[in-house]
Amino acid sequence: MADPKSQKFQTLTGMRDMLWPDSARRRLLVDGFVGLVGNAGYKEVVPPLLENLGVFRRIGEATDVVTKEMYDFEDKDGSRIALRPEMTAGVARAFVQHKPALPWKVFYTGSNFRHERPQKGRYRAFDQVGVEVLGPDDPDVDVEVIVLAWRFFEALGLEQVRLLVNTLGEHADRSAYSEGVRLYLESRRSELSGQAQETLQRNPLRVLDSKRREDKAVIGEAPRISKYLSEAAAEHFGRVCSGLDALDVPYTVDDRLVRGLDYYRRTTFEFAADALDAAQNAIGGGGRYDGLVEDLGGPATDGVGFALGVDRILLACDAEEVFAPPVTRLDAYLVDLTGGESARDLTHEIRGAGMSADRRFGAGSMKAQMKAADRSGARFAVIIGSDELVADEVTVRMLRRPDDGSHSDAANGGQGGPTDAQQRIPRRELIEFLRSRK
RNA sequence: GUGGUCGUAGCUCAGCUCGGUUAGAGCGCCAGGUUGUGGCCCUGGAGGCCGGGGGUUCAAAUCCCCUCGAUCACCCCA
Q1: Strand B nucleotides in reach of protein CB atoms, 7 A cut-off
Q2: Cβ of A117 < 7 Å from strand B?
């Protein structure tokens, strides 16, 4: 950095400012999600960004998220607290604290923080949207949750999304399976990559996730979860699959799908965006976490949910060229050649009537004001010159047609684009004029 | 935490290999052409300590070292 007197600040590593139109697109995406899950009976929950560190420890002592990536620090009273690295643990804590009626169906949107090396689709501050259902053990809940996410991707226009599902079995199944995998991998330890050997010591199941080529052969012959499943777990999973079939949601069972966080039991799932050439192509994931609530001091309660990565979804939308940012719309833009009082009064009058209006501060030449009017996306320029002022009239000029979603552009062939119709009307009729042409 | 690539105008980049007058282009922005009319066109203008620091040299955007940042991959995960 330069000399301290004139130090310029910029965003921290892995964090970024989102400016328009990216911010508009993100807003639209989040609003769409809220609408979708609201229709399914989910209510919003807004947990705090900071929690006692212990809340997040339950995510898994063997995970990087907990051991290496948390923004944790000491509070002023000496207690250990942390910025949330994900939402589920905080939501589960809220459940334990408030004891809401069952089933508790909630959704959330918000930022999470993980201290990792940033790369495409991975930031230290990232947005997620998600849902959680606490209470029912019914496999139909798993289905509802998965289908919700699937419909959301459909609504955005995404087509190259793959749904992967798996089951890790119940607690005992998972432990037995983990041990089975560990024994197997130990027996072929020398064939594994160095990284995989390290992972093996901490969390054998995670080795199955390795992307390194040298590990593939060994992983391919590893034991399958199906052999370790209890009857109940197998039946649960079977009903999840048949539910997805019934609702025509395509999926593939991937028995190597081991999700990162320790609290998952039974159903797990992940959404991969194939249009993303980046390594970070998981745009969402989730599963059952029966036992998490108990770990946090609550009654034994089943839970299932998912989290979707807003940033990655937007990246996937870019790759598939869908979900363009919304077009700016304005009902009127004021062009005032007489000093600005009319622009000031009319913008507020129009807004007060429930329509949208803007104007240019500092006025400028008519050309400058008209240019600004065009760029604003306004349908009409409302022009007030000295003639109009004296006659108590306004000139209303159409800048684009009602059905013209694009920015006006004379070069686009003229269909619905170029317009220049204008007329003078009494000033008191302006609101009615704009309203009748909305 | 490890490795590769890259930092020049608001944005996208040229110039760097073979150091040498006021560092360029396109887009965007501002103004004028059109003294009351946007989108197209033409003209002009503003805007850069060439990421920062140090070194080599008569001379560094250009060569060397360090540093910071970005980016991609590993790891991990959304």
Answers
A1: 1-3, 29-32, 34, 36-40, 49, 52-53, 68-78
A2: yes
Q: Where in chain A is the domain with CATH 3.40.50.800?
A: 330-436
d(CA A120, CA A279): 8
Window A198-217, strand B contacts by Cβ < 7 Å: 199, 206, 209-212
What are the tens digits of pLDDT across the range A409-435?
433 333 344 567 899 999 999 999 999
The A 295-324 residues near strand B by Cβ under 7 Å are 307-309, 311-312
d(CA A387, CA A172): 85
Q: Does the domain formed by A330-436 have CATH 3.40.47.10? A: no
How many residues appear in chain A?
Answer: 438
Please tell us whether the domain made up of A10-170+230-320 is placed in CATH 3.30.930.10.
Answer: yes
Which of A369, A300, A372 has its CA nearest to residue A337? A369
ipTM of the complex: 0.86
The segment(s) of chain A belonging to CATH 3.30.930.10 are: 10-170+230-320
CA angle, residues A240, A246, A251, in degrees to nearest 5: 60
Task: Write out pLDDT tens, residues A154-211.
Answer: 999 999 999 999 998 888 888 888 888 888 888 888 777 777 777 777 777 888 777 7
Higher pLDDT, A435 or A255: A435
Exposed e or buried b per residue across A31-54, where buried means at least 16 C-beta atoms within 10 angstroms of its C-beta? eebbebbeeeebeebebeebbebe
Please state, in angstroms and rounded to a whole number, the distance separating the CA atoms of residues A336 and A395.
11
Give strand ranges (E) for A75-143: 80-83, 104-113, 125-135
Provide the CA A375 to C1' B46 distance, Å, integer: 21
Between CA A399 and CA A401 the distance in angstroms is: 7
Closest residue (CA to C1') to nucleotide B73 in the complex: A279
CA to C1' distance (Å), from A386 to B33: 24
Tell me how far apart the alpha carbons of residues A22 and A318 are, in angstroms, rounded to a whole number: 11
In A321-365, which residue ranges form alpha helices assigned H by DSSP? 341-352
